[in-house]
Queue: 4 jobs
Job 1
Amino acid sequence: MKEKTTFYVLTAPVGQLCGNGQLRETIRERRNRKGEDVPFWYLSEELLSKFEIPGNKLEAVVAEEKTAINWLQLRFGGEILTHNFDRERLKNEAYDLPPAANTKDISTS
């Protein structure tokens, strides 16, 4: 059996974390600053189910640093929990950035 590590998880209803594109930019900036292997991942509703995290219609961010999750909770809201993950599995299955925000046409005719 692979060794599991306890990580901090911020869960929120789908769209609350990634709806406006700020989480996508936050993850991109964090990877640029701390390297591609920084333990910081986005879990879609499908990945939450795959990683056996309870809840319906939720999305999440997983991080090793509690302060990162606390900051995201202040910014976006949501609930914090801990969960054991296989780090390599997270790297392989949860590396993608959150979806981009929908752009709205605000031009005038």
Job 2
Amino acid sequence: MAQQTIDIIRQAEQQADQIEKDAITESDRLIQAAKDQSKTLLEHSNSEAINKAQAILEAAKRQGDQIIADQLQQAEEEIAVLSKTAAVKQQEAVKLIISELY
């Protein structure tokens, strides 16, 4: 009877050891899975953030290009007006000089 009790205790200890080992293995597996998942989520988040940043940069570039084009157009219009004004002033100056000479 004493031997049977000892055997039952040993068996219970072995089962407890196995349960502990299984729990450690499962815990390690769950931790690794969580790390893998967090790494995947982080990479996805980084990729998404990069894509959003690129989209913002592209939009800003397009907007900047449009502003430059608008300013260039305005400058060309001002140059045309100034050129016409200069031509008129030049003709007036020529007329004035001719009138002073005669």
Job 3
Amino acid sequence: MQANQVNQQNPVSTPGIRPGTSPKNRAKKIAELTQLAQTLDPYKGPTKQESKILKKYGITDYADPFLLTNQVLLLLEDAIENSSYGG
């Protein structure tokens, strides 16, 4: 690294959960993702409401049920971790 470069760390960011988000908003997003994880049937495909939520978090491909489930669970896990560390 050059002497004039500054080492800056970028905060880990989860789609829909930005650093500096209020605890109330983080809790709302965690609740939304928890509900989605509990109700989504990846083999039938998402409902219109579930599709809207998925799209909000950047998930638009529903063809692979395994991948869809993993993406939702990873979003939820990241949201909880960000909340635990003050996001």
Job 4
Amino acid sequence: MEEHSPEIDALKEAIRLNRENMLNDILLYLGFNEVEESRFQELLQLIEDAEKKSVKLNEALSAQEVINNVLK
């Protein structure tokens, strides 16, 4: 079993809470006061998947920017 430092655990919890808050804000904006737990979890997974894709794209962009700066 993989052990994490308290800092890593706290950051993971902050990310989880941020996702939930964002989803709750979106649902409220759309006029949903309640949603089934299974649907809520599916939506959270969609958000997590999109975040992972965004992180990869941001990393690729950063790397490309470094390459462009080195080549100048």
